[in-house]
Each structure stands twice: as structure tokens, then as C-alpha cells.
Design brief:
Blueprint: H1 5-34, H2 43-84, H3 86-131, H4 146-154, H5 165-169, H6 176-190, H7 201-237, H8 239-244, H9 248-266, E1 282-283, E2 290-291, E3 297-298, E4 301-302, E5 311-315, E6 324-328, E7 337-339
Helix pairs in contact: 1-2, 2-9, 3-7
Length: about 350
């Protein structure tokens, strides 16, 4: 791209200022050496020459700032374009489906845990029902007469099922000796308990409720996973039309950046290294042609080839640098990996 008229004019002015400044400095130095008695008179042109030279360097800052602004605005526009792209939407949808798949796996595990807990609770419930058939008032327990039986009943302890160490010890007048007798009585009854694993009506209803809750949640997740896969395909099918469309705003930003770069080259100024171009996609003249770095890195960072997220460095068992590899920061949701 050709340099702008402002840059061409600026270079001429800068060159003239540099030549005039250098000439003033050289003339001042030579004059001071020849006419040493008039040394003070040559200070003014010497300072003026330095001012002209430094003003040349000062004007370059404006052009560097102009390029930096154009570069920043271009990459911001490029990021907005990327967020509007079907690829970004597909990646976001894929990420949400991976999370949903992980939740589905956990749902199955939680359901198995609930079933196991239900079986355990069923045995405890049947044991409690069995112990409820044995009243303390009908039992012959040493040291437990009518008065203590009435006291126990007033605190809600009437059957063998109610007898626990905590429930007895909280009653005034009942010490460890009396508590041990009651617990021994309960233990003797428990030994006679025979657990029948066959489920009764209550067990069947509880199990049906647990299965119904699980299948309802699982069915909704499966439907969402199936429809989500179709949405990803549909989204990616719109990619060619998206890439072929012309984004006038991004083209304007790219044109402005190219113009700023051409002006810097014309002014023989080095570009400020604000962005690592090796990792950022390069915008070409045809809209939709973005060429990313094949290395998948930006400086010291690496990007996941599967989802585009940052990656985390891991070492092999040897712990040496040559044995390192990279995994996605969203692992285990994303299994993307790179070699070290």
C-alpha cells in the first residue's frame, strides 16, 4: 500500500529538520573552535540544532501511537468477528454438551448410590419395625421397675427401637449402669432379627420413585445431547456463507492498519511489538481469509487444537523438559493435547 500524503510530507520535514539541525551543530562546533573567544555566541545555534534533531524523534511518537491504535482496534474487531463466527458458537455449544455429558455420567453414579442407600435404609427400617414390637413395659429388665418405665415413656422411650445410648443418657437419674442394661436388652432382641430381603409395597414404591426421578432427568439430558449434536452440524454448515460475507467494518480496520504500517515503513520507523503475530490470525485482503499460526502458540502460551482454550504444561514421570507435554486447561471436559 502506498504511503499517505501526511507520511510523505512528514518525512520531508523530518529530513530537512535533521539536516538543518546537524548543520547548525556542526557550524557551532567549528565556529567555537576557530573563534574560541566568542564561544558563548555559538551556544544558541548549537542548542537550536539539538532542538531540531530532538523534534524529529518527538514527531515519530505520534506515528507509533497511530499504528498502535490501529493495530489494537483491528485485533479488537477481529475478536468481535471471531465471536460472531459459527466456529465460536459451535465450540461453545460443544463445551456445554461436554459438561452435560459429564453431568449425565455423574447422574448415573448418583442413582446407583441412591439405590445402595435405599437397600441399606430398608434393612434398618425393617429392623426398627421389628424392635417396635418389644415394649419395655412388657420386658423383665433388672433394675427397671414401674417408676423408671414411666419415666422412660415420658421421654419417648417405650420400645426396643427407642433405646439408644444418647436417648437414655439424657434422662435425669439414668446413669451408665442402667443404660448398659437397656442396651444389652435391645442387643439380645436384635440377635433374633432375621432380615427378609424381599421388598414390600413401601420398598417397591420408594424404588419406583427413585427410578422415575432418574429416568426423567436422564431422558431430558439425552434429548438435549442429541439435539445439541444436530445444532453443531447446522451451525458449522453456515460457516462457508459466513466466511464469504464481507465485513465492511473489519475491512476498514484492516485498511487503516495497513496504511499505518506503510507510513511507518516510509518513515523508517520500527513497528512497536504489542501483539505476537505468530499466534494471532493474519488478515489478508480477501475478507474471510484468516491464516493462523500452525504452531498454535502465542509467545509462551499454547492453545488447545480441539477447543481453542489455553493449555497447561505437564511433565512425564522422568520430570525432564524433553518429556513434557501439554493438555487442555478444561481437561477432563476437553481431551485436547499437544506434544512438548
Amino acid at each position: 500500500m502506498a504511503s499517505s500524503h501526511e507520511a510523505i510530507s512528514e518525512r520531508k520535514i523530518t529530513s530537512n529538520k535533521g539536516l538543518i539541525g546537524a548543520g547548525l551543530i556542526a557550524a557551532s562546533v567549528v565556529g567555537a573552535l576557530i573563534f574560541s573567544s566568542l564561544f558563548l555566541l555559538f551556544i544558541i545555534p548549537f542548542v537550536l540544532g539539538l532542538t531540531l534533531i530532538f523534534s524529529c524523534h518527538g514527531s515519530s511518537k505520534g506515528w507509533l501511537d497511530k499504528y498502535s491504535t490501529a493495530e489494537r482496534e483491528f485485533f479488537e474487531g477481529l475478536e468481535r468477528w471471531r465471536h460472531r463466527s459459527p466456529v465460536k458458537r459451535a465450540h461453545d455449544l460443544k463445551y456445554s454438551l461436554l459438561i452435560l455429558a459429564a453431568d449425565y455420567k455423574q447422574l448415573c453414579e448418583k442413582h446407583r448410590d441412591k439405590i445402595a442407600k435405599h437397600e441399606e435404609n430398608r434393612r434398618n427400617r425393617k429392623l426398627s419395625e421389628y424392635l417396635d414390637n418389644f415394649l419395655i413395659s412388657n420386658a423383665s429388665i433388672s433394675g427397671i421397675g414401674y417408676a423408671k418405665t414411666a419415666t422412660l415413656a415420658s421421654y419417648g422411650v417405650e420400645t426396643a427401637s427407642d433405646v439408644t445410648r444418647s436417648s437414655i443418657m439424657r434422662i435425669p437419674g439414668f446413669g451408665s449402669a442402667t443404660t448398659s442394661k437397656l442396651l444389652s436388652w435391645r442387643s439380645s432382641i436384635e440377635k433374633r432379627f432375621v432380615y427378609n430381603a424381599a421388598p414390600d409395597r413401601t420398598d417397591v414404591l420408594d424404588r419406583q420413585r427413585l427410578d422415575s426421578e432418574f429416568h426423567m432427568k436422564a431422558r431430558a439430558m439425552i434429548v438435549r445431547l442429541n439435539t445439541g449434536a444436530g445444532e453443531i452440524r447446522q451451525t458449522l454448515n453456515s460457516l462457508p456463507s459466513f466466511l464469504s460475507a464481507i465485513d465492511s467494518d473489519l475491512i476498514a480496520l484492516a485498511t487503516r492498519l495497513n496504511q499505518a504500517e506503510s507510513d511507518l515503513l516510509h518513515l523508517k520507523l520500527n513497528k512497536p511489538m504489542r501483539f505476537q503475530q505468530s499466534g494471532a490470525p493474519a488478515f489478508t485482503k480477501s475478507m474471510g481469509s484468516f491464516v493462523g499460526s500452525s504452531s498454535g502458540t502465542t509467545g509462551s502460551e499454547k492453545w488447545c487444537p480441539a477447543c481453542g482454550s489455553t493449555m497447561v504444561r505437564k511433565a512425564t514421570h522422568g520430570g525432564r523438559g524433553s518429556g513434557c507435554y501439554w493438555i487442555c486447561s478444561r481437561n477432563p471436559v476437553c481431551t485436547g493435547a499437544r506434544s512438548g
